[in-house]
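Incident log, support desk, overnight shift.

02:14 A customer reports that sequence design results differ from what the structure should imply. Their input is reproduced verbatim below. On-call engineer (initials T.W.) acknowledged and began investigating.
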């Protein structure tokens, strides 16, 4: 029974990486289930010799308890961070902002990804309710992208009726920190330094993004677009690692 459980959990992690990598951009969140699942799968496949090693040698006992401690600590962190991520990702945006920043993510060729399309759809809904607000499309051009994320987003919004005069393009940023820094400069020029700001990203990303903005002295409240359901496990795992890393590095 225990052997079967190890094999199932390990295969689930490895299989998740193989499937998601075929349909989504490769990143740490894509690979993390493989990193977590491969040891479990190997333990399940070689269950008898591995458990004998764990129980009959001092080194084996140390490795066993190190694995137990590591997996327990990691998934405890995932549970805690997931609660924080979920709470802030489902907050409603404040009305009356002068500008909304759309944080970029993957573009495939010249087309926005499904995740980015959902962010843009959330921005569209906000812009319709706040017709005087500007929108900053923020994102540079990464590997495998034929145009910048900002340009792909501009086309998406313009095709859905947003006036070009309301769209500010920020096409140099390569990180969330740069998204905020470069977008704030554009908004200062267009509206003024006291502009009321909101930003939209995917729900799992709101918690960390708000704290990055705050660390830069930028007051901006975030609201979340719907997660792509089958990517949620990868996103929550990756975001947990990112939150812990940023916290330890003093960046949030």
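02:41 Re-run completed on a clean worker. Output:
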């Amino acid at each position: 029974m225990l052997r079967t459980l190890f094999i199932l959990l390990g295969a689930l992690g490895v299989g998740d990486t193989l499937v998601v990598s075929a349909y989504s951009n490769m990143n740490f969140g894509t690979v993390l289930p493989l990193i977590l699942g491969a040891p479990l799968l190997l333990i399940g496949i070689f269950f008898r010799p591995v458990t004998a090693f764990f129980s009959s040698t001092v080194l084996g006992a140390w490795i066993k308890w190190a694995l137990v401690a590591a997996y327990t600590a990691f998934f405890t962190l995932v549970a805690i961070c997931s609660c924080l991520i979920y709470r802030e990702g489902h907050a409603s945006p404040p009305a009356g902002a002068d500008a909304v920043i759309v944080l970029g993510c993957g573009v495939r060729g010249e087309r926005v990804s499904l995740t980015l399309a959902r962010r843009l759809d959330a921005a569209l809904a906000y812009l319709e309710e706040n017709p005087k607000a500007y929108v900053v499309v923020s994102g540079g051009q990464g590997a495998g992208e034929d145009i910048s994320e900002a340009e792909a987003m501009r086309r998406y919004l313009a095709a859905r009726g947003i006036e070009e005069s309301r769209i500010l393009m920020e096409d140099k940023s390569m990180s969330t920190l740069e998204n905020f820094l470069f977008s704030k400069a554009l908004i200062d020029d267009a509206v003024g330094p006291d502009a009321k700001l909101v930003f939209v990203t995917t729900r799992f990303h709101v918690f960390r993004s708000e704290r990055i903005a705050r660390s830069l002295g930028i007051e901006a409240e975030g609201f979340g677009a719907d997660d792509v359901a089958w990517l949620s496990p990868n996103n929550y795992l990756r975001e947990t690692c990112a939150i812990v890393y940023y916290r330890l590095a003093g960046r949030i």
